[in-house]
Amino acid sequence: MAAFFRLRIVRDLLIALVVVFGVGSIAMLLAHVSPIDGFAALFDGAFGTTSEFAETLVSATALLFPALGIALAFRAGLFNIGAEGQLVLGGLAAGVAGVFVPGPPVVSIVVTLVAGAAAGGVWGGIAGWLKARFGANEVIATLMLNVVAALFATYAVDGPLHFATANEGETPLLAPTAWLPTIVPDTRLTIAILIALAVAVALRFVFNRTVFGFELRAAGEAPEAARRAGIDLRRIALLAMTYSGAIAGLGGATLVTGVLHRFNTGLSPGYGFVAIAVALVGNLEPLWICVAAFAFGILQNGALSMQAEANVPRDVINVVEGLVIIALAGRRYVASRRST
Amino acid sequence: MNALAAALVALAALTLVKATPLIFAALGGVLSERSGVVNIGLEGIMIGGAFTAVCVSGATGSPLLGALAGVVAGALLAALLAFVATRLAFDQIVAGTGLNIVALGGAAFGLVLVFGQPGASREVPAFGQTGEGVLTVLAFVLAGALALFLNGTPWGLRVRACGENPRAAAAAGIDPLRTRFWSVVAGGAIASLGGVYLSLAELDLYSDGMTAGRGFIALAAVIFGRWTPFGATGAALFFGFFSALQYTLQRAGIPSELMQALPYLAALVALAGLAGRVRAPASDGIPYIADASR
Lengths: 340, 294
What we know:
The structure holds 2 protein chains of 2 kinds. Chain A is mostly helical. In chain A, 73% of the residues lie in helices and 0% in strands. Chain B has helices at 2-34, 42-60, 63-86, 92-115, 128-152, 154-164, 166-171, 176-202, 214-224, 229-250, 256-271. The chains are: A mainly alpha, B mainly alpha.
């Protein structure tokens, strides 16, 4: 039993739970709400009805994609703080591609998803290239690229990519042939969740069973030894950031084709940042990240009814998520980080 | 001619308004990073300073007390980061990212609690134009003082030693953990003045998202300014100028997003070393662990 609690994943989950319920309760008391009522409203909103549960899974899926991308980069010792920007540009590319490719259902869906992954991959790849070519610190680069992505998306949809049929800050509504099929009728739960789970399984295989996965880990945990063993760290940086961005971009594309059916500049309420917490709680292990994404999906979605029914401002959830990130920052992700 | 002169004066004045919060935040970043702690949480610290200042000014009717409270709040947020980054040797990047999320959520939550409404606070007693000028002057004075401190005092030398080679510093009898802790806390206090400026000088209220990424521009200014107080101040003025220009040109119908992106693109160029060599303090971002065997 003691050995069980020494497992990192168990310890991290316990820490996360203590932060969620501890800080959450304090915040609810500050708002003059009994924590029992507050959490009851939260869980009721997350699980109460079929459609509410479906919506929880929709939130979980939105977090799962960027979290998996982040895990891939973190494993290589690369701090991809830029999932948010990669996700937004992936969504933008999907929203635009979907308008231009009104082909048969399968074709248009595949094209929009590929466009999203490609755009996210390019955006992540820029940071990887700057790192590989110039040794530029990827943390600062991805932070800057986040803001540039948001500004670019706003500029694009109201400027050169503005369609007469679209409102300000949006691309036009996609044709239903480009919508992801739903799993549960009359909800927004689509096959996006199956795609995300497939990506998780694939990543687990890549991490544990492939040369590339081994190279990622070597580059992250012992870069100097990896370099001496003949692993090209520049190639790893470029590839890891590109793939990481592509997964986040794919997530953005599924939000467009599956949830909103158009790109909107408000596509992501910070999924790319909360996903950092998801990846950390999941201990950078793809299957545990799925569990963590589900848990955070409960928080994200339950927060809405907690606000509506128990009068606790839903921003509490952000405080809790941020504190979880801080509490789990203890793992030494990079053996010997080089600044800039 | 007079119209042109008036326009230039207006642009210069607006540049100072836009640059002042960036200078405060960037100076805080310089102090923290020269001691060896990367402060990604500058944005959150500005938010904490801006929000707390408005709450206390609203409650007491004194913007001065509000500003002091804002500085204390910024220092406390920085102390949280400093504690996990030094004593616990946690990852600074991850912790700083978390700090930003905590502050943004905390201020949004606090708005509802204190002012009973989401989005923005009510208007509170603020400094007005005189205070705006005083704070701008203070920003420049702090830049000079920080340069003098880092380069001309034994304490400054200790801070720099911890940022370059904490182990050697420890061998020379300096406590790297303590030095880093207080550098981050003091840096947070300075950076929070940037938030106070936004909420009590430029405006007289707090609204969600009012820092609008200025903490990240300040990070860019730290790099662009080569981790020196005057360099960072110059970079902040440069970014402030483009921000002011953007407001001026916006009225002429030029898309503002491209101008807004400029500081970030400039930082990427600087980061890639395309604008000359950039060298961060050698141990910037690396936790110091006393036991050498680990």
